[in-house]
Structure formats: structure tokens, C-alpha cells
């Protein structure tokens, strides 16, 4: 089972090719959390951060949402309040555009292709990604699947250290593709691959003073002399 991930930051390149238990790594991680702390300013009452943006892409039912959920769980983020989360996840599904009356009729008949790029509001997605990378608090729209239109409600994403964004075409659009590389899941039961992604994020977060406390809470610990990381799953690697 293959999961290939390339995670890139403006100051660093981290490459992880995972085939079974084989790992190739070439990285030099530096981040504003560990240096240039003056760049972190208050935005909307919260500390502005330049986050690590990780894209999770793949076809329908390929395991994108489950992979993100397991990463969040292993990092102990699911139990935290939104304002306290250091890793957050958003879905491209929030950026479907409102359909026209004729398109809604086609959707009701099962004749509208929601997997086509034209089904998404790529300009809205681009604007939100830019604000996220600027360390701003953002409002992510909620899509109403019954009316096939944007709901009046939205949910708030606060500045975080790591942002996971998942979707079938999340980096199809040229303007959004440049913001992060892509993880293509080959099944959400690939615990080894998920643990290695968690390791990358954990190493990144360790540059912050309170990271050790967060990792201890999540039950994640380093294995000396090994690129692996153990957690509460207890499953052999």
C-alpha cells in the first residue's frame, strides 16, 4: 500500500516517500515558531501564525476525511476547543458554489457532476487560503446539500500551526496548487503511513514551547534511533 507525501514550506523542503516500511527523507525544517517570532502578531485577538499547509487529495471515498480525522486524533486535537487547536482541518466541500435553478433540477435527477472543477467556487477557496497563510482568522462557509446553495451559517477557523485541507480537487486549480503539496491517501487503514505523517507534524510542532505537553497528552512519543513514532493505537509497525 503506497502513500506518497511531499510537504513543503517557504523555508524548508521535507520529502517522505513511504512504500511499506521504506522511507526516504531529505529535510531541513525551520519555522517561524522557532525563529523570527516577531513575525507573529495579534490578529482578531489571537496570535497570527504562518501555518504549515498540507493538502490531502484523492477521489471520492479514497479515505481523505478519515486520514485527516486520524491525524487530528493522534495529535490530541479533536478534544480541544476550536480556539485552542494547533492543528485544524477544512474541507473543499465547504467551497461548492450555489447552483443555478436549472443546475439544481439536474442535481435532483442525479445528472449534475459535483466532482467537476466548475462545481467549486475556486475564487473563494483561494481567498480563504491566502488569509490562512497570512495567519488570519477565517470564516469557512457551510454548504447546504439539500438546497445545493451556500448556507447563511459558517464556522470559524482560528490561526493554527498546521492546516490540513482535504478535497477531491483541492489543488487542481493553478492558483491554489502553489500553496501546498499533496498527500494522496491509498486507504485510511494504512496506520504506518498515517503515523509517519503525524511524525512530520509532531517534529514541526516541537519547535513551539508547549508542543511536548501536547504530544504527551496525545500519547505520542519518539522511538530513539528510529524514524517511527508510537502512539495509543498499539498496532505493530
UniProtKB/TrEMBL annotation:
<dbReference type="GO" id="GO:0004849">
    <property type="term" value="F:uridine kinase activity"/>
</dbReference>
<dbReference type="InterPro" id="IPR006083">
    <property type="entry name" value="PRK/URK"/>
</dbReference>
<protein>
    <recommendedName>
        <fullName>uridine/cytidine kinase</fullName>
        <ecNumber>2.7.1.48</ecNumber>
    </recommendedName>
</protein>
<keyword id="KW-0547">Nucleotide-binding</keyword>
<dbReference type="InterPro" id="IPR027417">
    <property type="entry name" value="P-loop_NTPase"/>
</dbReference>
<dbReference type="GO" id="GO:0044211">
    <property type="term" value="P:CTP salvage"/>
</dbReference>
<comment type="similarity">
    <text>Belongs to the uridine kinase family.</text>
</comment>
<keyword id="KW-0418">Kinase</keyword>
<comment type="pathway">
    <text>Pyrimidine metabolism; UMP biosynthesis via salvage pathway; UMP from uridine: step 1/1.</text>
</comment>
<dbReference type="InterPro" id="IPR000764">
    <property type="entry name" value="Uridine_kinase-like"/>
</dbReference>
<feature type="domain" description="Phosphoribulokinase/uridine kinase">
    <location>
        <begin position="53"/>
        <end position="184"/>
    </location>
</feature>
<keyword id="KW-0808">Transferase</keyword>
<dbReference type="GO" id="GO:0005524">
    <property type="term" value="F:ATP binding"/>
</dbReference>
<dbReference type="GO" id="GO:0044206">
    <property type="term" value="P:UMP salvage"/>
</dbReference>
<dbReference type="Pfam" id="PF00485">
    <property type="entry name" value="PRK"/>
</dbReference>
